[in-house]
Amino acid sequence: MLERCCMQIGDLAERAGVSTRTIRYYEELGILGPEERSDGGFRRYCDDQLRRLQMIQGLKSLGFELEQIRQLFTLRNETETGGQLAHQMIDILRGQQEAIDSKIQQYVELRERTTRGIAVLQDCQSCDIRVFERDCHNCEVYQRHEEVPDLVECAIFGQ
């Protein structure tokens, strides 16, 4: 007869591409657990736990926090109807969308700043003044720019 739970923690970790420490941490958080324990107390896992671990890793790669993932996995036990489950999931997913929108805005701003920084630095490439002898703030090339982003300013700011 085939044994239903065939993996110990090291096997599960290897198959999922994570460390055993990660698996134990997920167990502490309540988002993953062994199917059973052997007579010797060893954790034993099945393909269901491997699939769950893969889902956790996939959600993490999409930006979900571990607490959100825990909430998603426990919703089924905390709701009575499919409608309640759907409502709770929508709330979590809307929160995730808001976080994504915020990150997108941050990246757009960062892209604009780096573009402005590149524009300033493009004009400085022909500068042959030694680094510690130059005063960029008084340079006509530097002053042509209405704004010099702080990510460029920090490299030319004197002590």
List the defining traits of the structure above.
two-stranded antiparallel ribbon; 2 domains; mainly alpha; 7 helices; 159 residues; Multidrug-efflux Transporter Regulator, Chain: A, Domain 2; 2 strands; 63% helix
How would you sum up this structure, described in words?
With 159 residues, this protein is mostly helical. It has two domains: 1-78, Multidrug-efflux Transporter Regulator, Chain: A, Domain 2 (Orthogonal Bundle), CATH 1.10.1660; 82-159, no CATH class. The protein contains seven helices and two strands. It has helices at residues 9-16, 20-29, 47-61, 66-78, 82-124, 140-143, 150-156; strands spanning 36-37, 43-44. It has a two-stranded antiparallel ribbon with strand order 1-2. Strand 1 (36-37) and strand 2 (43-44) form a beta hairpin. The longest helix has 43 residues, at 82-124. The N and C termini lie far apart (75 Å).
Structural class: mainly alpha
CATH architecture of the largest domain: Orthogonal Bundle
Distance, first to last CA: 75 Å
**Percent range of helical residues:** 55-70%
The strand line-up of the biggest sheet is 1-2
Count of helical regions:
7
CATH C-level name of the largest domain: Mainly Alpha
Mean pLDDT: 87
> Could you say which overall geometry the principal axes of the C-alpha atoms support?
elongated
Determine the oligomeric state from the structure.
Answer: single chain
Low-confidence segments, given as residue ranges, are: none
Q: What is the number of strand segments?
A: 2
The CATH topology of the largest domain comes to Multidrug-efflux Transporter Regulator, Chain: A, Domain 2
Sequence of secondary-structure elements: HHEEHHHHH
What's the structural domain tally? 2
Our estimate of the beta-strand percent is: under 5%
Largest sheet report: 2 strands, antiparallel
Task: Calculate Rg over CA atoms.
Answer: 26 Å
